[in-house]
Amino acid sequence: MPGSLEPLDVAVQIPYHFRCPISLELMRDPVTVCTGQTYDRASIESWVATGNTTCPVTRAPLSDFILIPNHTLRRLIQDWCVANRSLGVERIPTPKQPADPALVRDLLVQASSNSTPPHSRLSALRRLRGLAKDSDKNRSLISTHNVPEVLLPIVFAGPESNENDELTHESLALLVMFPLDEAHCEFVASETDRVAFLSFLLSHSCIEVRVNAAALIEMVVAGTRSLENRILIGNADGVLEGITRILNHPLAYPRALKVGIKALFALCLVKQNRHMAVSAGAVEALIDKLADFEKCDAERALATVELLCRIPAGRSAFAEHALTVPLLVKIILKISDRATEYATGALVSLCSASEQLQRDAVAAGVVTQLLLLVQSDCTERAKRKAQLLLKLLRDSWPEDSIANSDDFACSDVAPF
Question: Does residue 79 belong to any structural domain of this protein?
Fold first, then answer.
């Protein structure tokens, strides 16, 4: 039963034939099986997925697993919901029907055929993307047709396809909705012309095209085992600059921030790419956007900060940004254990290289944060980093620091 009905289950009597025989809850998407019985789609699909081959009510064998939408019953249920609105019952939305496998096959054939007019191919790709957006089930169905094999040749059709830019962009938008295996990643990464084309798309006037290009770059970098190819992508003209611009895009398009940090992190995992990232302005972009990331993305951003702090150019760039140390200190114990670990690790690198940054960290209140950290239930790695940072900062503690109190004696800090 929907959450809105739970406190009303005594006052509101749901008609028996509106309830799913499996879950006994109000049906939201009633479908009929070959035995003539009607169930809620989610319930009967779960029943079949667990290996059952009989009708739950009649116990008769299911000769097929075709689920026919019961539109009449669904409309009756919706009318009943509307009639009981005053009692707190919400109308169930009209469900979007799952994609027809035959339709998916036809659309993919149409999209991939060079003999089909470009506008028809574009229409097929747009319909496929609409289906993929509708549900995970549709995406799973579409993915069984090896979508990358169809779409990669369209995306990288060559310079002669410039007149069909929309076809390329729509193919790219659909492609990044599906995983790529290693062979597909190598197909992209092993050819400098393909990498150069993605770099070109990173400068496109449309933000969606730029973000989709960055998404494909991230997928390829993460999916290829070849260190040489990962370096090739990171050092390609305009790649890291384009990704940095995506990070700096206004928050009105939040997907840019999410895709941008995923791509930057994937590239910075390769140490040979980190100098290029610093030169491209990644340090300033990370600090300026650090407060805007959601939890998972904030962890990835802080991991990237720590990676860039491992090279002298990265440490210098972070040291020059006035907000670096205060932000990292503030984050400790605030977001997650991983975020704490990465922020502390970055501070270790920065303070190891600069006495001024040590004083800045102490002024920002890092000592109290670290002493709380070593007594918390955080990861052992985070504690070791905190202990090392405390040792680095001892000479910078003021005389009246809490670290010199009886409660937080220096001798309590274990050696790293």
Answer: yes
**Local confidence band at 406 (pLDDT 50, 70, 90 cut-offs):** very low
Q: What average pLDDT does range 197-216 have in this prediction?
A: 95
Q: What is the secondary structure of 117-178 as a DSSP string?
A: -HHHHHHHHHHHHHHHHH-HHHHHHHHTT-HHHHHHHHHT--GGGGGGHHHHHHHHHHHTTS
User: Shortest CA distance to 43 belongs to which of 63, 16, 23, 64?
Assistant: 23
Structure tokens at 353: 């290289």
Helix (H) or strand (E) run with residue 186 in it: helix 182-189
Arithmetic mean of pLDDT over the chain: 87
Give the residue from 63, 87, 111 where a domain finishes.
87
Pick from 40, 72, 87: which residue ends a domain?
87
In a domain, 243, yes or no: no
Q: In this structure, is residue 395 part of a structural domain?
A: yes
pTM above 0.90, yes or no: no
Domain ranges, residue 80 = 3-87
| SS3 label, residue 393 | helix
What's the domain count of the chain? 2
Q: Flag whether 119 is in a domain.
A: no
* pLDDT tens-place string over residues 13-25: 899 999 999 999 9
CA-wise closest residue to 367 among 336, 338, 339, 409: 409
* Token output for 270: 């390769």
Question: Could you tell me if 361 and 346 are in contact, meaning their C-beta atoms sit under 8 angstroms apart?
Answer: no
Closest-CA residue to 331 (of 366, 380, 358, 285): 366
